[in-house]
Design a protein that fits this description.
Strand content: 5-15%
Number of strands: 7
Oligomer: single chain
Number of domains: 2
Low-confidence stretches: 1-6
Helix content: 40-55%
Shape: globular
Length: 321
């Protein structure tokens, strides 16, 4: 059985449910319509992310509240993920926390990608979700994600710390009427991804792949599977992220009897097949697999499988009949 790769932990919903309870906003009927378990507040489940986003979008429309922004301002790291909060307590500074976060992210979420990157000489914690910016409530999901990272940073930088600059991927008109606490923060909208500027040492190293000897191939494979969903993902990007050179990576791939292009294509192909098998629309599958142009994705998928995405999806449905 293929795993459901685009899912969310039910714990991620708890801050929203507590918010609804506190505000006296009816949510249980909407949760039932979206087929949530009755004990969603007590149990721990993995829920399809489409189901979660549909629920939050319905709640935003019915309550007329900016849920992601309002809830994000109140959340703690423990509310998002008790496991992550516990791991962060073991870290003595933000640098250590980011190293641990990179290790944990593939296990914590199947649809959010997080990475540190130096942009114009400044370090940022960058993030990208699974949903296209044109989808309903995308901006609310990104606000929540940004505040989650803000909560993490404040654990090491102080409870009132604010980033000097923030990137958001949605349009500027969706970012009006920001809280006063952000008056000193510079916002840039319409970016390729979300990001918060953070005070890291200039020589900070996100991950040192060259020091991984015993399980190098496995470690690099996890990195490729995690970041292949980024449209700009290539060997030069991976080399910068891994604090090495593209030439060194190519040499190591050759020593292991593989190459970067094959591993990237395999990661994208497997993800695409699983999503198509779960009946995701082709344009969303393309976005989730790192393609901003549907035609390019269609050509790539046919090159991998000798079928178009639609043909492959129909064959999956036929096998179930």
């Amino acid at each position: 059985m293929s795993k459901i790769i685009n899912v969310s932990r039910s714990n991620n919903l708890l801050p929203f449910l507590y918010y609804f309870e506190k505000k006296g906003i009816e949510w249980k009927a909407t949760a039932e319509k979206h087929h949530f378990p009755e004990d969603i507040m007590e149990g721990e489940y993995w829920l399809p992310s489409h189901q979660v986003m549909g629920f939050l979008n319905s709640m935003m429309r019915s309550s007329k509240q900016r849920i992601g922004l309002d809830v994000g301002r109140l959340i703690t790291l423990e509310q998002i993920s008790p496991k992550l909060a516990l791991e962060m307590l073991k870290c003595s500074n933000l640098e250590e926390a980011l190293h641990r976060l990179i290790e944990l992210m593939p296990k914590l979420s199947s649809h959010v990608v997080i990475w540190p990157e130096k942009i114009a000489g400044k370090w940022y914690i960058c993030h990208r979700g699974a949903y296209h910016p044109t989808l309903p409530s995308y901006d609310q999901a990104e606000w929540f994600r940004s505040f989650a990272l803000l909560s993490l940073c404040r654990q090491f930088l102080g409870e009132f710390w604010q980033p000097n600059s923030v990137f958001m991927s949605f349009s500027e008109h969706l970012g009006k009427n920001l809280p006063r606490s952000f008056e000193a923060t510079s916002f840039a909208f319409g970016h390729d991804f979300g990001a918060l500027e953070v005070p890291l040492a200039d020589d900070f190293v996100p991950i040192e792949v060259d020091k991984i000897e015993s399980n190098w191939q496995q470690s690099i494979q996890v990195l490729i599977e995690t970041y292949a969903s980024l449209p700009w993902f290539n060997i030069d990007w991976l080399a910068r992220f891994a604090s090495t050179s593209a030439r060194t990576l190519q040499r190591r791939f050759t020593e292991q009897g593989s190459n970067f292009r094959e591993l990237k294509d395999k990661a994208r192909c497997e993800k695409a097949k699983q999503l198509l098998n779960e009946k995701y629309p082709t344009y969303e599958v393309a976005w989730l697999c790192g393609y901003t142009d549907l035609s390019n994705f269609n050509r790539a998928f046919k090159g991998w499988t000798n079928q178009t995405p639609s043909q492959y999806q129909r064959s999956c449905i036929a096998r179930l009949l």
